Known about the structure:
This protein has about 400 residues and is mainly α. It is built from 18 helices and no strands. The chain has one domain. This is DUF418 domain-containing protein. Keywords: Membrane, Transmembrane, Transmembrane helix. Pfam families: DUF418.
Amino acid sequence: MLLLIVLSNTAFHLWAAKHGPSGWHPIDGSIADRVVQFAMITMLDLRAYPLFAFLFGYGMMRLYMRQTEAGASERAGVALLRRRSLLLLAFGFVHAALLLAGDIIGAYGLGSLILGWLFLRRRQRTLLVWSGVAATILVLTALPAFTALATGDLGSIGTPATEPSTVAYAAGEADPIAAAETRLVTWAFVTIAGGLLAFGTHAVMLLGFWAARQRILEEPHRHLRLLGWTAAVGVAIGWSGGLLPALAHVNLVDVPPNAVGEEGALSQLQEVTGVAGGLGYVALFALLAHWLSSRRRGEQSVAVQAVAAVGKRSMSCYIAHSLLFSPVLAAWGLGLGAMMGSASMAAFAFGVWLITAAGAYALERAGRPGPAEALLRRLLYGRALPRQEGGQQRANT
């Protein structure tokens, strides 16, 4: 998941490239750049974040369940998760002020604050019903886009051009103070819109609540049929919804500029189908984990241990990505983003992820949590972390 996240964050660091009406990926570059752009639009854009939202909701419910199973009251468990959500908002604010405007910690902190208060203690059927309601709202808001697609009038909605994402993310701003101000404005929008109005995120987070009670990711062998169908259908829908925007981006199909703008028909199609794509990826990774577990009954390989170590330190690795990206690539730092294309930036992102995986593996070998997780637990529990939580909470903090 974190590899997909860091790859999806590459586009707004290409601040010197020429952008088209979508405002996201550059429209120039080598053949390799165009191949990478096509692959990202089809398989990655607006698909990684629903995946993250599901896992966030899953971990949130597992933490709540561990509290109640340890003897805490339901009210106390909800109060703990509420404090955690407020702390995540604070972490997100600092992250955006210093490094990354597109921070998602704050957005999921706000979303979890609301959804945790409303749904942590609800029945399974209630979680599924309200997840369906949120998904329905998302589809209804995209009805004009589906109508435009059905009629072929793709230019009927949206704006002719969208401002390049590099502007809102302040990647090309040379003044560090001005860049920080821009990042915070963007962060406020991302946090409020993502926490309150991202109905697709709400839908998959509630599904994460439901799935955690079923222990679907811990016990995939008990849910192979569900996981198989979800992977097949979800990935197929996700990739199908990204295919037309990708073809339009590389000029293999001709569409009006409005169609690929921020509110355009193809952009909305990509967002709606991205929810299914994200769930498909969750199921696919769960099946992969099941296959690895059944294949290797003994000691896990170093690669699997390293990936698991990243998962236990997901916030630390996520912030470390920004530490290795922004000061190196942004104009207020070394400015190397101006010299890269989509392909070289993707290679750089993969290298950054490998570095964080190596760091997480080293911390795992030393028996130490990630620094962000350690700070969050210290702020959440105080100096004396309950003994029962010490070893269990790392994976979901």
